[in-house]
Design goal:
This protein has 16 helices and 17 strands. It is α/β, with parallel strands linked by helices. It has three domains: about 170 residues, MoaB/Mog-like domain (Molybdenum Cofactor Biosythetic Enzyme, Chain A, 3-Layer(aba) Sandwich), CATH 3.40.980; about 80 residues, Alpha-Beta Plaits (2-Layer Sandwich), CATH 3.30.70; about 160 residues, CinA-like (Maf protein). A hairpin with a 2-residue loop joins strand 10 and strand 11. Helix 2 packs parallel to helix 7 and helix 11 runs parallel beside helix 16. The longest helix is centred in the C-terminal third of the chain and has 23 residues. The radius of gyration is 27 Å and the shape is globular. Pfam families: CinA, CinA_KH, MoCF_biosynth. Belongs to the CinA family.
């Protein structure tokens, strides 16, 4: 068995300026890792011929497998295919099976005539192996130069994923004799990265050379990930499970879950297991907590809905927050979020509720209530708890931190009730 590395090149000016977020390379990296292939490098380049050429040269020196996405469309800024033709010393030819596929798409699916521009999608370099794209007009292409394989795929995510799943991944085991890669991940809250490192110092130092520990801090929480590489899958799983068990025991007081899932899904599982329901009353987050909860399939089993009470009039009319409370204590106060909890429980008739009110910035703060001050409450029909938080970042990060802390406070409340 051998360690096999891959490099990923994503192409497009829109990626460089942040107009489009590059999710393709992250997904490709995850799929290759499952297949036992490690990632050497991920690089994004613009629609510039010299830059793409240079990236091909540099990445092929680092890894025997280079995956490329983007630049295969029918417009003038899509230059990848013609560049690859020149790079590998080929000439363009019409690939008849692809042409038939493109014609079928236009006649049966798109319901419009095939243009000459779209017909050119069926042209490929004669030095490549064509990889069928069942979902789009631009086929994937496989090239080989020396000991390096280059795979070019469209930048449209669903098309790239189809080619990877149906054409590329099935071939990897015949190309490379890879080892096995195993990951174990846990999530902690309420402790910083450096303190966590001190706590598990002895465990980390005792890890064998083929097992690595990574710290992944994000929004006040820290993930710990063990990664192991080896030839014997069963032995590797047994070994990493042992070391992971030591980690779980060491951080038990701060452990959220010993799995690689997001916090909102942890809360969702707790609710579903208990047959309980949840609603949210959101002011400063504008529905973001509800968005996180409903971004996962099956959330309708436990999440009933939300009231975005951004204006005080909604807090009063819908959530029955008293005018006197708003006048004397203000919208950002313990009293207000407690009344929001009781109001939303009456409106939605759920088992649990979350309420948040705060000042996200950049404006709106005062000496008494600065930007980043947030009140979070969670409760049921018999009890409500409220906590004050102070965040110090930009608006979006303050919103994210509010949502994370609200969900974690709810998680603790549910467990306390069990």
């Amino acid at each position: 068995m051998e360690k096999v590395f891959a490099s990923i090149i994503t192409i497009g000016d829109e990626l460089l300026i942040g107009q489009v977020v590059d999710t393709n390379s992250a997904w490709i990296a995850q799929e290759l890792n499952k297949a036992g292939i490690m990632i050497r490098n991920r690089v994004a380049v613009g629609d510039v011929r010299d830059d793409i050429w240079k990236a091909l040269d540099e990445e092929s020196e680092k890894a025997p497998l280079v995956l490329i996405t983007g630049g295969l469309g029918p417009t003038a800024d899509d230059i990848t295919k013609s560049l690859l033709c020149d790079y590998f010393g080929g000439r363009m030819i019409l690939h008849e099976p692809t042409l038939l596929h493109v014609q079928d798409l236009f006649e049966r699916v798109f319901k419009r005539p095939l243009t000459e521009r779209n017909r050119k999608q069926a042209e490929v370099p004669d030095v490549c192996t064509v990889l069928r794209n069942a979902l789009g007009t631009a086929p994937g292409m496989l090239f080989k130069k020396g000991n390096t394989r280059f795979i070019s795929m469209p930048g449209v995510p669903q098309e790239m994923k189809w080619i990877m799943e149906h054409q590329v991944i099935p071939q990897l085991s015949s190309w490379y004799q890879t080892g096995h890669i195993e990951h174990r991940t846990l999530l902690t809250a309420g402790i910083g990265e450096s303190s966590l490192a001190d706590m598990i110092k002895d465990i980390e130092e005792a890890l064998p050379a083929h097992i690595k520990l990574a710290y992944l801090p994000n929004y006040g929480m820290v993930r710990l990930r063990l990664t192991a590489f080896g030839n014997d899958s069963q032995l590797l799983q047994k070994e990493i499970d042992h070391h992971f068990g030591l980690l779980v025991t060491a951080v038990k007081d701060y452990l959220v879950i010993d799995d690689d899932i997001p916090l909102e899904l942890v809360v969702g599982h707790l609710l579903k297991e208990r047959g309980k329901t949840l609603t949210t009353a959101e002011s400063c987050t504008g529905g973001y907590i509800a968005h996180k909860l409903t971004s996962h399939a099956g959330s309708s089993a436990y999440f009933m809905g939300s009231v975005v009470s951004y204006d005080n009039s909604i807090k009063q009319r819908v959530l029955d927050v008293k005018a006197a409370t708003l006048e004397s204590k203000g919208a950002v106060s313990e009293e207000t979020v407690r009344e929001m909890i009781q109001g939303i429980l009456q409106v939605m008739r759920t088992d649990y509720a979350v309420a948040v009110s705060g000042i996200m910035g950049p404006d709106g703060g005062s000496k008494e209530k600065p930007v980043g001050m947030v009140w979070i409450a969670v409760g049921d029909h018999s009890e409500t708890i409220a906590r004050q938080f102070h965040f110090r970042f930009d608006r979006m990060r303050n919103i994210e931190l509010t949502a994370i802390n609200a969900l974690n406070l709810l998680r603790q409340f549910i467990l306390q009730k069990s």
